[in-house]
Write a structure and sequence with these properties.
Blueprint lengths: L5 E5 L1 E4 L2 E4 L12 E6 L6 H14 L4 E6 L2 E10 L4 E5 L15 E5 L6 H5 L2 H38 L3 H16 L11 E5 L1 E4 L2 E4 L1 H4 L4 E6 L6 H14 L4 E5 L7 E6 L4 E6 L11 E4 L6 H6 L1 H36 L5 H17 L4
Amino acid sequence: MQKGKVRNMFSGGNTSKGFFSRFDQIISHRDARRIFVLKGGPGTGKSTFMKNISEIMTDQGYDTEHMHCSSDSRSLDAVVIPKLKVALVDGTAPHVIDPKVPGAVDEIINLGEFWSSPALVEKRDEIMKIGNEIGSFFQRAYRYLKAACYIYEDSSVLYGSAMDTAGLNSIAREFTGMLFDEFPPAGRPGRQRSLFASAITPDGPVSYVDDLMTLDNIYVFEGFPGSGTDLVLERIKTAAVERGFDVEVFYCGFDPEKPEHLIIPELNTAFSTSSKYHPTDACAIRKVDFREYLDERAISKLSKELSFNEHEFDRLLDRAVEMLSNAKKLHDELEAFYIPHLDFDGIRKKQNKTAERILVFACT
């Protein structure tokens, strides 16, 4: 039996707008057969629980999706088994999730049942103190990212003032025409799934863009602040949805409302934005360098300001990453309080029983 494949992405991010959750996009309740919502404190093994079940599923030949945690990209926030229409999701802060259709679709798995509460009560004050310190570091990280956003916006305006907007419109018209001219508007629009391909983490920016660029027809847009790649992608996405095609849109890990990558599975086509912070090695059938649409004389006059902005942006981003790293170190300390008091045998039995229940869906 051929082992299933794993797709990697993020469902939430540490952004210039604070923590931004797209957990509602992990799996549609309308389509899902079962959503397991994992509860339990730090160190209760939620991520390991999901990784182990994912491995069981891939060993059985099922493809899975790993939604990585932006606060620790080595941990998981969710696992999806698309063919079985099943998901396991971390339902704890900062992405608190409660069942929407209890019993019929969602159910809670409480890993907190497997810890020894009396032993933890003795550490109550230390646990609360570390928890507060973690929250403080996250808030500082978000303030630095917000400050960096003002720098980024200034660069976007400066670059935008030197962009050939007619050129951008021509790119959008070319691609929408090439892909969709033979398709009339559909009676029912396509569906959009919105997630993140990259995130700002304690290890710096982490990207799974190349992992997602697996289709045959890949187009790479080489962009920069204010280049307009997001505007072109938005027009392509709108045209696809209007013609009934389902799309996956992956938004910027820094600006969560800016589309950066677009996948149209039915057309075997994908678009990826390559930048300094998430370059791509995807085998593109065509690359479009948006610098070709810059007025070089205008941009040369702005070089000093743009160089200053780039340096300041990187400095603020590094500072935000440092705060996230501090939060991660404290989170590891917090987990250390819980791990010695966990019933790992009980968790393993629960994990295997859950995997057996998921595999039942393969027979129905």
